[in-house]
Write a structure and sequence with these properties.
The protein is an alpha/beta fold and 344 residues long. It contains 15 helices and 12 strands. It has 2 domains: 18-32 and 240-341, Alpha-Beta Complex (Aspartate Aminotransferase, domain 1); 38-237, Aspartate Aminotransferase, domain 2 (3-Layer(aba) Sandwich). The strands form 3 sheets. Strands 2-6-5-4-3 form a 5-stranded mixed sheet, sandwiched between helices. A hairpin with a 5-residue loop joins β7 and β8. The longest helix has 25 residues, at 239-263. It is globular and about 55 Å long.
Length: 344
């Protein structure tokens, strides 16, 4: 066997439990439970045969997203999903960083799941090459004010501050308006969640033009497939579809929080289309829900949040189905101490 670099040999492949999910109620990976705009389906179905044979063309894609987020086009670059954007950012997200032999210095969240601002500020004193922040954090749902992240970036001009904002449609908060002129901040956003295009992999980096231009240097010329380009443009042309879905999810989120409080079940989450739930016998509950055709994501063995599962918030009908299945399961078994933290 020909061995790779020592850093690669030490890695364990990430294998997501994605097979056999389609027939079930998918409340495990924070995907849209509704799907994309009808315009997306129409646009893909109307493609002529020669579109399949030609390399994809990207004209207008960055401009369309720039208009959506309110920045000039030079501040935006499209990627084959946010994962590809992360790989382009100096290969510094955890698995990529390990491949390059980089040191990862994680800042754990405290037991109350509040943003560890003081601990991060101390870490920045050592001038790391990169700071990666999920906002809201996934899976805790912790949401921090964009101004706080911009202040951190201003305090560390030699550190590239990357803010994962995949759920910005649901939080209605972004660092982009405050940070677009800072040369050390980049936001990552996507059409996978609210727009319902997770299968097609289309993400965007939004930041200072000097950052965006450097990301282009390490990106392949045809990384994004033609279906994603066509679907992305069609989705962005139907913002009303996305707004309606987001409004329904936020209403369903409020209803679900109310039900969890009624049941005395601990939960947490400030923003995004998901919550953390502590049902007591977590693995037993996750298994019982799966037997009833409902998927949630176990957080077993994860620091701070072990014993919980992540619950994607779908439509109100989705969440009524979840609660109808969940209530008798938790009523028959042990549960965690009632506690909630939901500040949206």
């Amino acid at each position: 066997m020909i061995r790779a670099r020592a850093e690669v040999e030490s890695l364990t492949p990430y294998v997501a439990p994605l097979e056999g999910r389609r027939p079930m109620l998918r409340l495990d990976f924070n995907e849209s439970t509704l799907g994309p705009s009808p315009r997306v389906l129409e646009a893909i179905r109307s493609l002529p045969p020669d579109a399949y044979a030609a390399y994809p063309e990207y004209a207008g894609l960055n401009a369309a997203y720039a208009e959506t987020v309110g920045v000039p086009e030079r501040h935006v670059e499209a990627f084959n999903g946010v994962d590809a954007a992360i790989r382009a950012i100096f290969n510094a997200y955890e698995p990529c960083a390990q491949q390059q032999g980089m040191v990862i210095d994680e800042v754990l969240y405290p037991d109350d799941l509040r943003f560890p601002l003081a601990a991060i500020a101390r870490k920045l004193e050592s001038r790391p090459r990169l700071l990666f922040v999920c906002n809201p954090n996934n899976p805790t749902g912790t949401l921090v004010e964009p101004a706080t992240l911009v202040d951190l970036a201003r305090s560390a001009p030699d550190t590239l501050v990357v803010v994962d904002e995949l759920y910005a449609d649901f939080t209605r908060q972004s660092v982009v308006p405050l940070a677009r002129e800072l040369a050390n901040v980049v936001a990552l956003q996507s059409l996978s969640k609210a727009a319902g295009l997770a299968a097609l992999r289309l993400g965007f980096a939004v930041g200072h033009p000097t950052i965006v231009e450097r990301l282009r240097r390490v990106t392949g010329p045809y990384d994004i497939n033609m279906f994603a380009v066509v679907a992305g443009k069609a989705a962005m042309a139907d913002q009303e579809h996305t707004r309606r879905y987001v409004a329904e999810v936020l209403a369903a989120r409020d209803w679900t929080i109310g039900e969890l409080r009624r049941l005395g079940v601990r939960h947490a989450g400030d923003g995004g289309n998901y919550l953390l739930v502590w049902p007591g016998d977590c693995e037993g509950v996750v298994h019982a829900l799966r037997e009833r055709g409902i998927l949630v994501r176990s957080m077993a063995k994860k620091p701070v949040i072990a014993g919980s599962f992540r619950l994607t918030i779908g439509t109100l009908a989705d969440m009524r189905r979840f609660v109808s299945a969940f209530e008798p399961i938790v009523a028959s078994g042990p549960r965690s101490a009632a506690y909630s933290r939901s500040l949206r």
